Amino acid sequence: MLAYSVRRLGFALVTLWLASSLVFAALLLIPGNPAQAILGIEATPEDVAALEARLGLDKPPLERYLSWLSGVLRGDLGLSIRYEQPIAALILNRLGITLPIVLVSLFLAVLIAVPLGVLAARRAGSWVDLAVSMGSLVGVVLPSFWVGLMFIYLFVVWLRLPLPTSFPVEGWENPGRALASLVLPVLTVGLASAAFLVRLVRGSVLEVLSQDYVRTARAKGLSERSVLYKHALRNAALPVATVLGLEFANLLIATVVVETVFGIPGLGSLSLTAISARDYPLLQGVVLVIAAFIVLTNLVVDLLYALLDPRVSYE
Amino acid sequence: MNRWLLIGFAVFFGLGMAQQRGGSITIALQTEPAAWDPTQVAGADISRVVYDNVLQGLVKRNPRGEIVPSLATRWSVSDSGLTYTFTLRQGVKFHDGSDFTAQDVIAKFNRARNPDTRASGHLRPDLYRDITEVSSPNSNTVVFRLRQPNNDFLFILSRPESLIGPRQRPLAEQRVQPVGTGPFRFAAWERGVAVRLERNPNYYIQGLPYLDRVNFRFLGDGDAQLAGLRAGDLDVIAYALLPENALLLSRDPNFRVVAGTATAEAVAGFNNSRPPFNDVRVRRAITLAINKDELIQGAMLGYGTKIGSMRSPGEACYVDLSNFNPYNPEEARRLLAEAGFTNQNPLRFTFNLAAEFPYERRIGEALVAQLNRLGPLQVSIQVTDFNTWIQRVFTQADYAMTLIGHVEANDIGNYANPRYYWRYNNPRFQQLFTQYLRAPNATQACEALAAAQRLLAEDAASVWVMSLPALGAHRARVQNWPQGFLSPGISVAEVWVR
């Protein structure tokens, strides 16, 4: 298990390096200039050149990349072009908002999706199943920017719940309001995730319930409850765990839409700023962090497999 | 109920609008600028926040676009037009406690006119080229000497680049936390969220400002802004309110919609150097194929003012050319046929649009539909992000036709620069513009500027679709909101809340 983990970590480092290099190359290929983006269209070419010199953008790309890479190896992600602040601090600050949104949303999604999915699978073909399937279909197809806006109108404008519609201007200085401002985004993201997950749980449980060992369990007279919870659910959890891991990584960046609607300064909006400002080092930093999360999540999911399924072994 | 409300209002106004001190408001801002010192970084949203709220110059443009005193109480211009003498306001302090003196003004403009921008960190030294000397004969007077008359000089001093900070303040600090003399001090910049301004307790005008705090909240999405306004998290959408949202809010007694004209022209620009757009017949034909009234009604729901040259009705020396080259599809087809383009052999080109600007996007898309309706034109749209647009269209002029809003006031002079992205090179225009700048009096200056506007229209150098509407809305509790959009700043010194 340990050897396996170490080997995986080695692969992970290569993956991270590749991801950051790809982003750097991609940003070089697309047109646009960070200095001009900062100064706007009224700036003269001399103004732009002066700012490029101050930011070190007049050096050749390879030199900039190598100096960035050596910084990363020393644990320094460098300075953002746009904000002129340490990238690590910027990302950490934004993760402090996005990570809770994603984790609570996923928790909410599991809380809703697992019971509903199991229920729908047990009563496959009934009106309950139909209702769950229809509901999840609606949840999957509705765009989150629309759902977010509707939640604002429903909960804040009509029901007058004391929820902020966007992150408070004082930031975390007002922790109560900052937390309250995350409620609607979590609901938006969580419900969309649940809608997606419920179909998977249903399908997975249905498949397991048609297996021979379930028929055997039933034949030897086990109660339906014990068939379901002792035998079926544990096996049905395997594909769900995989998808949950992927969904976690996906949400880290997919929250960008919700962050835009609710004006939340999270990782998604930071990466959007980095792209539109052509802030190369900032975007590389964000990609590096997200790639690290993906690699880590995959590792955790793989290790979980061994716990969930005794047939899986990493020796 | 309504009657009591009316009586209440009558009593209220009878007492003469007792302004209340205190309170705070939150204003939506579309983008988050990279920095907040307009002498180092340009951007309309920087000025909206700091201009006349935090930083002030010798003179300023008020919401009606007039140049009025600010840190200078009065000024005089010599008969030759070469010497400008300003009398400074006395007893003014910067937010850091230091005194505002003539030395700050001298240091500022010596920095501004230094052609070496790397050393000065100051934008646009080209604006200040005509200054030969800035001096101070006594502590409350500053004198500018110019090498040649410049009718734009006061306007230049009213630009955001001409705002004045303390001379000893390090540039890097001024960039992220500007210190000025305005009614509000720059309290904090919460990255990705908002900027907070707080009352300047030592402001030199007694009793101002009324508000304790003003927040500018970065919220790019128009629908999210509307939701925030209706939920009460935002008090003001100061500009770029979507026309459909303006209609919606104008029917609701809880909100006030503010509509007017700004200095933003929606310019559908040609690359004048590229065939066949170097042929005036083609440019005129395209102008004649565009139905501006339909665009204003259809794309902007009636908001916007038809124009016919590079100037908005609110600006000085404006000439109404809105019916010059009016919509005439037959004449457009005839001119195109003359230039060799017919239904069988249409003129094909790409029209570039930047994704970030909702007004320009919808106007551009509708305009291209009109062009394609004509027959001999086959136009395709390419939408990119603004950064790509700047590089391809603006910097490299690698385009045929595009549409963007030019928000700057008094920006007709860009047509005198053959390197500007329209690549318009007409010596007659350049001559007229120089005549305007050097004219000995205001009448002659305006005459030259009027002739310049007419020449552009005759040349069909671009298609000036409309003066973009200035649309904003605020909650009814916000009082005395500035009427007019012709200042670079959203000046909130005299705003108060009930």
Description:
The complex is a heterodimer of chains A (315) and B (498). Chain A has 315 residues and is mainly alpha-helical. In chain A, 77% of the residues lie in helices and 0% in strands. Chain A contains 14 helices and no strands. The model of chain A has no long low-confidence stretch (mean pLDDT 87). In chain B, β6 and β7 form a beta hairpin. Chain B starts with a helix and ends with a strand.
Query: What is the helix fraction of residues of chain B, given as a range?
Result: 25-40%
% residues in beta strands of chain B: 15-25%
Low-confidence stretches of chain A: none
SSE string of chain A: HHHHHHHHHHHHHH
CA distance, first residue to last residue of chain B: 19 Å
Counting DSSP H or I runs of 4 or more residues, the number of helices of chain B is 15
Please describe the biggest sheet of chain B, giving its number of strands, its sense, and whether it closes into a barrel: 11 strands, mixed
Q: Low-confidence spans of chain B: pLDDT under 50, at least 5 residues?
A: 9-16
Q: What's the rounded overall pLDDT mean of chain B?
A: 93
What coarse outline of chain A follows from CA principal-axis ratios? globular
How big is the Rg of chain A? 24 Å
Characterize this entry briefly.
The complex is a heterodimer of chains A (315) and B (498). By secondary structure, chain A is mostly helical. Chain A is 77% helix and 0% strand.
Write the layout of secondary structure elements.
The complex is a heterodimer of chains A (315) and B (498).
Chain A: H1 2-29, H2 34-39, H3 45-55, H4 61-73, H5 87-122, H6 127-141, H7 144-158, H8 175-180, H9 183-209, H10 212-219, H11 224-254, H12 256-261, H13 267-276, H14 280-308
Chain B: H1 2-14, E1 24-29, H2 44-50, E2 59-61, E3 67-69, E4 72-77, E5 83-88, H3 102-113, H4 117-120, E6 131-135, E7 141-146, H5 153-157, H6 171-176, E8 184-190, E9 194-199, E10 213-218, H7 222-231, E11 236-237, H8 243-250, E12 255-270, H9 280-288, H10 292-300, E13 305-306, H11 329-338, E14 347-354, H12 358-374, E15 377-384, H13 386-395, E16 401-406, H14 427-438, H15 442-459, E17 462-475, E18 478-479, E19 496-497
Parallel strand pairs in B: 1-10, 1-11, 14-15, 14-16
Antiparallel strand pairs in B: 2-3, 4-5, 5-7, 6-7, 8-9, 9-10, 11-17, 12-16, 12-17, 13-17, 18-19
